[in-house]
Amino acid sequence: MERHFLLTILVASCTVLPGCCTTSLNTSQSRLNGLRGCSDAGSCGSQSACSGSCGTERSKGCTGDVEGRCQSNVGCDFEYGRKNILLDGVGWVTGIPSKLILWNTKVDSHSISRQTEDTLRGYLQANDLTDVKVRVNQYDPLGEWKRLIGNKEIHPAWRYTVGAYAVTKYTLLPGRILGGDEYNPFTNTISLYSDRASIALREGAHARQAQNATYRGLYSSSMFLPGSPLWIDTPATREVIAYSKQTGQRALERESYLVLFPAFGSRLGSSAFLYADAGQAQLLQGSLALVGHAIGRTMGAYVSEDPVQMAKAVMGIVKKPQPEETINAELQDPLPPMETFSVSFVPVDVEYDLFN
Asked: Rounded to an integer, what distance in angstroms lies between the CA atom of residue 134 and that of residue 205?
């Protein structure tokens, strides 16, 4: 279990110091700091809450939204599982079936890049989802039980029945080993194990749908019913594609077609496990994933900008983002061509009089 001693002290100080989290922040600056993974100065009266988390230590778990952190009963931030070669290696091996089904080695890789985190962080802040906890390759059952009890947005009748089942499943089937990115609406927590921005945004879209639902408890419970991808993953996939188009991220849009479409077929097939035995469910899961691959790669080819990218989209190769091009500054007065220049140095004798 991860140790949260520093985070506990920080939250305790928020409850003791009067008005420590009522500081008004500039919205654009707060979101910019959130993308960097650190909070503004004045977070609970101390700037050291996130000192060192900007580009160095990611284990501080800061979101950049000071007010949102103390408004909710359950809190909001990013938390990270401690690196463990054995556990992460076992998790990578157990995730091989998912990698084969989605034909992507970054699925259930248990190693999430900064770019994937920042993409999800930006989406959550753009939609004011300040109460969402994001556990990046982390296993914390005690924390999830506490969040289940502290989530007052859902009626106890739903929390202590279906919600207890969801947290029990999280406890007994740890994703740190078995993988499986998911959003738990009863604890308002996203668990990430795959290094794919499209998958992270899909879970963020799940959080947005659950919080905007009219009957939140009923909607949250419906996420665990057989066939739930039909009314859960369908709008979430559309949300991710619309978000990528709105933000002008063509690579993310192409990745969404290549990854989320077969993932939808796979999740739809696995959700029918209650109505079929293990062999039939796996056959259905693989068949629907192939259909998703065919449709997704066809749609991804239309997003490609040239024949090479189109071929990569059809083959399922997601183009890695290229680093920003460096701008070469031109000389204001360039030297004329075909000219030779000579530089001569004239020695100068300097005498020092030490006595005057």
From this structure: 13
Place of tokens 């024949």: 307
* Residue pLDDT, tens place only, 301-333: 888 766 666 666 555 565 555 544 443 444 344
**Which carries the bigger pLDDT value, residue 70 or residue 231?**
231
Q: C-alpha distances in angstroms, 136 versus 48, 74, 88, 217?
A: 22, 17, 12, 25
Given a cut of 80, whether residue 175 has pLDDT beyond it is: yes
Q: What is the DSSP string of 247-300?
A: TT-HHHHHHHHHHHHHHHHHHHHHHGGGGS-HHHHHHHHHHHHHHHHHHHHHHH
Strand partners, 183: 190
Backbone angles phi, psi at 77, to 5 degrees: 180, 175
Greatest extent of the chain over all pairs of C-alpha atoms, in Å: 107
Q: Left if phi > 0, otherwise alpha if psi is -120 to 50, otherwise beta: which for 21?
A: alpha
Q: How many residues would you count in the chain?
A: 356
Q: 230 exposed, middle or buried (CB, 10 Å; 0-12, 13-18, 19+)?
A: middle
Q: How far apart are CA 118 and CA 249, in angstroms?
A: 14
Question: Is the CB of residue 217 less than 8 Å from the CB of residue 158?
Answer: yes
Global confidence as pTM = 0.69
Among residues 11, 9, 4, 143, the alpha carbon closest in space to that of 66 is found at: 11
Beta strands in the chain (DSSP E): 77-80, 133-136, 182-184, 189-192
Name the nearest CA neighbour of 87 among 170, 1, 187: 1
Query: Residues 181-226: pLDDT tens digits?
Result: 999 999 999 999 999 999 999 999 999 999 999 999 999 999 999 8
CB-based contact 262:102 (threshold 8 Å): yes
Q: Are 270 and 285 in contact (CB under 8 A)?
A: yes
